Amino acid sequence: MDKSIPRRKSLGKREFTEAELKELRTAFDLLDRNRDGRVTPSELQFMLGKLGIQLKDEVVLQLLRSASPSGNELLNESEFVTWVRKIQNLLPDDVEDETSKDLIAAFRVFDVERKGYVTKNELRAAMEMMGESVTESQLNDFIRSATTDKDGRINYEEFARQFT
After folding, report:
1. Is residue 141 included in any domain, yes or no?
2. What pLDDT is recorded for position 34?
3. Cα(43)–Cα(49) distance, integer angstroms
4. Which GO terms describe its molecular function (predicted)?
5. In a domain, 139, yes or no
6. Would you list the DSSP string of 37-84?
7. DSSP conformational letter for 117
8. Residue pair 32/42 in contact by the 8 Å Cβ criterion
9. Angle at CA of residue 163, ends 161 and 164, nearest 5°
């Protein structure tokens, strides 16, 4: 019995409504498996795994360190809500459709320096961060097939074309 959770509109740069805060509290409770009021690296890793997202342990630690003001790799409910708000604020205001928002978020994972394009080295680093091994030949093939202007860099439009 598969109960799909409906996707909701992006929260954008506004404050959360009470209903959205309730959803975030529920999400936090799902992450906090031992109910101690803190999300640990292993709890986050478990949930990501259930979502089909495989990240190396050090990447999960990095995520939690960046989300926690103290950098202690533990996240309480308040810090979790603040972290989600920061993630939502990365989305541009003028994008309305969910697929475009997802593609922009994925592109930004690779475009760490926010230059508007991704190089082969950035693509390699992001793939390694996700635990995916990739050969030089595979990288070259992807860059070659993705870039329409043959500049060796993938801009957002080229990136989106590969996934739509």
Report:
1. yes
2. 92
3. 10
4. calcium ion binding
5. yes
6. S-B-HHHHHHHHHHTT----HHHHHHHHHHHSTT-SS-B-HHHHHHHH
7. E
8. no
9. 70
Domain that holds residue 33: 18-89
The answer to whether residues 105 and 85 belong to one domain is no
How many residues are recorded in the chain? Answer: 164
One-character DSSP codes across 7-26: P----TTSPPPHHHHHHHHH
* Contact assessment for residue 43 and residue 37, using Cβ atoms and an 8 Å cutoff: no
> pLDDT per residue over 124-161, tens digit each?
877 777 677 788 888 888 888 888 777 888 887 777 77
What are the contacts of 65-68 at 24+ separation with CB within 8 A? Answer: none
What pLDDT is stored for residue 143 in this prediction? 83
Domain boundary among 89, 117, 140: 89
Place of tokens 């961060």: 129
